[in-house]
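Quick one, probably user error.
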C-alpha cells in the first residue's frame, strides 16, 4: 500500500500540480471572461434546473479552495512541526463540512 501511495505522490510531484495550485491568481481568475462566463453559465444552469445540491457542492469547493490559500493555513506547519492549536479548528471545520456533504448525499432526497 505504501508503494502505491509513494507512486501517486511521485506522479503528483512530477506534474508540479501542487505548485500550480499554490500559484493561482484568484483575482485574475475571477475577472477573466474565459473562466467567468462558463462559470456563471454553469451556476445559471444549476439554478434553472434547480440543482441546489450541485450549487452547494460548488460553493463548498470554492470555500475550501479559498481557505486553503489563507495565511492561517500556511502557518499550520512551522519548522517541520505541526501547530496543534491551529490544526484543531481546521479538523473541526473539515468534520463539519464532511458532515454536511454526507447529509446532502445520503440524508436527503431531491
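Nope, works fine. Designed sequence:
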Amino acid at each position: 500500500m505504501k508503494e502505491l501511495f509513494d507512486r501517486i505522490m511521485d506522479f503528483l510531484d512530477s506534474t508540479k500540480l501542487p505548485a500550480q495550485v499554490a500559484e493561482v491568481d484568484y483575482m485574475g481568475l475571477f475577472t477573466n471572461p474565459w473562466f467567468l462566463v462558463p462559470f456563471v453559465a454553469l451556476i445559471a444552469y444549476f439554478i434553472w434546473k434547480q440543482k441546489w445540491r450541485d450549487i452547494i457542492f460548488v460553493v463548498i469547493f470554492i470555500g475550501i479552495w479559498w481557505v486553503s490559500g489563507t495565511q492561517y493555513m500556511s502557518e499550520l506547519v512551522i519548522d517541520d512541526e505541526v501547530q496543534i492549536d491551529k490544526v484543531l479548528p481546521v479538523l473541526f471545520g473539515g468534520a463539519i463540512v464532511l458532515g454536511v456533504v454526507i447529509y446532502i448525499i445520503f440524508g436527503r432526497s431531491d
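DSSP finds seven helices and two strands in the chain.
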